[in-house]
Write a structure and sequence with these properties.
The complex is a heterodimer. By secondary structure, chain A is an all-alpha fold. Helix content of chain A is about 75%, strand content about 0%. Chain A is built from 5 helices and no strands. Chain A is elongated. About 10% of the residues of chain A have low confidence. Chain B folds into 4 domains: about 100 residues, Single Sheet (N-terminal domain of TfIIb); about 220 residues, Rossmann fold; about 230 residues, Dimethylsulfoxide Reductase, domain 2 (3-Layer(aba) Sandwich); about 140 residues, Barwin-like endoglucanases. In chain B, the strands form 6 sheets. A 7-stranded mixed sheet of chain B has the order 7-6-18-17-16-8-9, sandwiched between helices. In chain B, strands 1-29-2-5-4-3 form a 6-stranded antiparallel sheet. Chain B is globular, with a radius of gyration of 25 Å. The chains are: A mainly alpha, B alpha/beta. Chains A and B meet through helix 2 and helix 5 of A and helix 19 of B. Chain A: This is DUF892 family protein. Chain B: Its cofactor is [4Fe-4S] cluster; Mo-bis(molybdopterin guanine dinucleotide).
Chain lengths: ~160, ~850
Amino acid sequence: MMVRLTAALRDLYRDETELAAALLRVADRHGADPELHHGCHDLARWSEQHATDLVEAGRRYGLGVSEPAGYGAGYGAAVDGAAADAVDPGLLLLADLRDLHRRSAGVVLDWDVVAQAAQALRDRELLALAQASRTQAERQLAWSKALVKASAAQIMTSPPQDAS
Amino acid sequence: MGRIDRIAEPWGTRTPYGPGETWPTRVDSYLADGLDEHDVDRWVQSATVLHSNGDALDIAVKDGRIAGVRGRAGDRVNHGRLGPKDLYGWQANHSPDRLTEPLVRRGGELVPADWDTAMDAVAGRTRELLDERGPGSVGFYTTGQLFLEEYYTLAVIAHGGIGTNHLDGNTRLCTATAGESLKESFGSDGQPGSYTDVDHADVIALYGHNVAETQTVLWTRMLDRLAGPNPPRLLCVDPRQTPVADAATVHLAPRPGTNLMLMNALLHEIVAHDWVDHDWVSRHTTGFDDLRAQVADCPPERAAEVCDVPAGDIRAAAQLLGSAERLLSTVLQGFYQSHQATAAAVQVNNVHLVRGMLGRPGCGVLQMNGQPTAQNTRECGADGDLPGFRNWANPAHVEDLARLWNVDPLRIPHYGPPTNLMQILRYAEQGSIRFLYVTGTNPAVSLPELARVRRVLAQERLFLVVQDIFLTETAQLADVVLPAATWGEKTGTFTNVDRTVHLSEKAVDPPGGARPDLDILLDYARRLELADQDGAPLVTWTDAEGAFEAWKACSAGRPCDYSGLSYDQLRGRSGIQWPVNDAHPGGTERLYADGVFPTDPGYCETYGRDLVTGAPVEPTAYRAANPSGRALIKPAEYVPPHEPPDDAHPFVLTTGRTLYHFHTRTKTGRAPQLQRAAPDVWVEVSDDDARAHGWDEGDLLRITTERGSVEARLRISGIRPGVVFLPFHYGYWDTPGGYRPGGANSADGAHGRAANELTPTDWDPASKQPLFKTAAAAVERIAAGDGSPAPAPTTTASRPVRDVGTHTRGDERSLALETLPDGGAR
């Protein structure tokens, strides 16, 4: 019946899952930057929880996905793999943060869509989930922006050969 | 008058008193070499510097040398008392290995040089880098042990002159979370409470604060209340069986890294039982509904599981907090250096906000400091913040500062939060910072993950300047070493945790060519030709009093207002609590007595941060939610610690201090009475764990984490099972290794004795304070002991669970004087 909402929930499930995977990949790549590394792990846990909660809440709307497992499968090649070692680590850090920021922005917007639908459907349970998850997604969004702002000046004003 | 061995009896003789009474005076003194008071040439006013309590004392001078100390009877902080470190620690000033001339590195060796050569090298390299790579290549790392005048001068040089954002103090390791938690809850740094709250409180809650060892005189005040009529009840949160735990009505020993969950459960109970002052909450706070929602799913049963503390004990603790009529809370490293530091410390503030217990006698929060002058590092901006608790994200505050310094606002870096110490080190590691000027601190022992720290500091491309009084582990890695004068050899002011400002006067000349830190910094500014926008010198003062006057102008109108203070006012009198201004000419005992907080968007020091992610709150969001003078109740959700124990590393390592030493022992290790009391590193394990592994007192254990290993003798203590404790004081300057592991205390020479070989590089996202309390560790026995006990004090938290045959005590050279209120002997 709610074909469009089902699709939106499926997209959101995919985006949260991919955000979690992206956070863990970035964490791996920046082990020597603890604030980024640990922050990624902490915030990936939130996205994993959101995806898990979606499975439960989405069942009534025909969302037929299993609980999230094996994060990383869905994560695309935006800043992936082979190029990573070759590029300037400062620029790689900024690129990774920009990617996380874009993904988080998409997730926030997805939750807005779900929240609007939940309100129209008078589904209190889904609405509460959407509001709580959206709040955390917004905090993920603010976090990646804050890290960009804290490091951009130093990265931009230092010569690239400083890379170690 | 009586003589007492203050090594064996660190807190001295009880002078009991009741609630609301004045703490009796007890004057403690210690004079060396058999002198008595009649032999002293003169007494010079000062205060204590080997902890953060800020006890007032007079320095005895005999024949141009310091000969002892005596507590100042009339001072509001200590009423004459001194702690063991104060009584004996000054002797380090006379050590034969004091630095007395500058050293510069030539052909890989540090060799003596004259001041001109050394300062030209320092200023010359700075200038070169500024020309070639800009201010982002220059960093400064200072301390919590210099004077206000020196911090303010350094902040002007770094922020207004050089224009770098890379300035921090080692207060990052000890009080960054104190400052941040105060900012988050109240809009600005500044302790709401006063030490006199001890005199009135009916409940004192100590969170991760082993006050008996860290601030002995404050504990003496509490002990005297406990010995008097109607004593306060104590709540202690600590994984060790500290003296505070012994005296507590309720002692909670949570699993390390779970403080926030514990606090959320305590708040859950307070809300559930409605121990809430709703009227006060509605008039003076915002955010209570968020808190109620956050703690709703944190009942004691859930916390019991996460924290591994009985739910009944959590209920009993909450009952204690909920039934208090005058609640005093204190917080220190057990929270500040642990996982989710700021979030947990803020929940302590929240207990007071929901209970409406601030600004009245007995109702105070003391987010403690670890070092004597840490408050000044923070207020002067030597921790990277803008001076005077100004808000880097508020352009009007930056313009205000630019006007005061007569510089272009763009010269003052404010594009982002100041670079915290660990990030400064990361930039040095990556090579974008090429110059690091370290004053009065020893990162090669005190920072986490020492192998990495040594690697970073030893880099060829990093120009390292170290200004200190001894050739510390860090100084041994420097390119230039500048010999500084210390306490007793220079004049300046400093401020303790309850905002009490003391003047410390020069008593004697520094040794050889050593110079006051202020003089060295002024020389540096001169050689750099730092100028304002009209070409006049940026730094306009030439001595300590001139710096103080400049600071007064900078602080005027801000929460830490010194404008009504002067050296003359501080001279001869007791310490005075800021703010001191026209409205409060005699100082201010308690902040926020009127329930108005400095949270107005135009006035506040910060717009705050997300307590879990650390992301700064955007100015527009803060302005939109304008708290208009109300305090902010900020809840936070629990996140598990980053390095949980596993099969390979089944223990949790926590580090800390002992009563007898300060920091990396540069002074206390050179005071014979203190050094004898705690001569070498030890490791604490619980009786349960020792039995399970067949370990005995005195066995040599090896503690290993992902970062390295340390060997130490075992003390079986009252610590929580599953947790191991190492004191962090012991480095390498008095071992064959010099600045690194190598032979000392080691079966094969490869293992260290500095606890920070083991600690991880991780920090709290909000306060950026490094974490020293949650590393996963493996423990194994290397060799059985010879029957002698571990070299750990028996008087404090490190005392053995069973008699080990020896007791920590001094000798005839440890006998100090006590003058009790009735004038009699003890």
